[in-house]
Write a structure and sequence with these properties.
single chain, 318 residues, mainly alpha, 0% strand
Length: 318
């Protein structure tokens, strides 16, 4: 290993040899990228693979583009997707939490990530030709940095999408809980009440309505009610929904009244929401210190003391 490092350092010390190595690596990368794009375009324009993919998944019209991308990635999917099953399952759960439920979402995500890892360094290396003051080693450093950006930016965007969707679910959960209590107390069963709430929230809170409709669809498909509710908690990842699911599961297991349990949970959740609002209000005074000190006080001092300072400076100069 030490001899290899010494050889590498000797090559890097020679500027001409280093440039030859860089040109060779760049040419090989461009060749591999062009070959991969050729394979993808051929598979994407193949009517046979496209019809096989459409027949296998039967997606709606909005997901047909993902199906075409997935069928085009068939030969290279094993190189793009992670090898560990646990990593694939973890990423699939994150995509579902972000709202991407298509079976092709995992392949599209890793394809975009792979393209960014390869394309961004190529853009940096090609752009370095118009920057004569930029040295070769600096261009290579920037290319490696751009490759790192292409590796981590998709994960960062996915985390932001998950947080945004969970915030939307959290905002719609109080309304859904109140409607669920009203529907159950009016005599509807749990499945019918969930479907009714999903229909009522389809315009105001579409994400939460879709999750509730998915629970009802799983129950109608024959999945046990407890498992369907636990899947809801796993998909959303919200503590409030997990608490509601745990309450409903215990209620169905011990045979107690669903309406009484929902009423008690609604009152507790309303108290928690009030406590959370009071906590945010208590933090407001501390949070306002920084904008007041940085923005308001300098302007106040300029307006209050500025004219006097101008007169004093004029008197000293005169």
């Amino acid at each position: 290993m030490e001899s290899f490092l010494d050889l590498l350092n000797s090559y890097l010390a020679d500027e001409a040899t280093f440039r030859r190595i860089l040109v060779g690596v760049t040419a090989l990368t461009i060749f591999i990228l062009g070959l991969g794009l050729t394979v993808l375009i051929m598979n994407l324009t193949s009517p046979l693979r496209r019809r096989i993919g459409l027949a296998a998944h039967e997606p709606p019209a909005k997901d047909r583009f993902l199906v075409r991308v997935s069928t085009a990635l068939g030969p290279v999917a094993s190189y793009v997707l992670p090898q560990k099953e646990s990593e694939r399952n973890n990423m699939t759960e994150q995509l579902i939490s972000a709202g991407f439920r298509s079976p092709q979402a995992l392949q599209v995500f890793y394809t975009v990530k792979s393209l960014l890892i390869v394309a961004l360094p190529m853009v940096v290396l090609i752009s370095s030709r118009w920057l004569p003051d930029l040295s070769t080693r600096a261009a290579l450093t920037y290319a490696i940095f751009a490759s790192g950006i292409g590796m981590f930016v998709p994960n960062f965007v996915l985390i932001k999408l998950i947080a945004k969707r969970r915030k939307a679910l959290r905002n719609g959960f109080p309304d859904a809980l109140d409607l669920l209590v009203v529907c159950v107390e009016s005599g509807l069963g749990l499945a019918a009440a969930i479907q009714r709430v999903a229909d009522e929230l389809s315009f105001s809170h579409p994400d939460l309505a879709f999750e509730l409709a998915t629970v009802n669809a799983e129950i109608r498909a024959g999945r046990p009610r407890e498992q369907a509710l636990r899947n809801l908690a796993d998909r959303t990842g919200l503590p409030d929904i997990k608490g509601l699911v745990g309450l409903l599961v215990q209620t169905m297991r011990f045979g107690t009244g669903v309406s009484d349990a929902l009423r008690v949970y609604s009152e507790e959740f309303r108290d928690k929401r009030m406590q959370r609002a009071e906590e945010q209000a208590a933090k407001m005074a501390t949070t306002l210190i920084f904008p007041l000190v940085l923005c308001m006080f300098p302007i106040f001092f300029i307006i209050a003391i500025g004219p006097a300072m101008i007169r004093i400076m004029a008197w000293m100069n005169g």
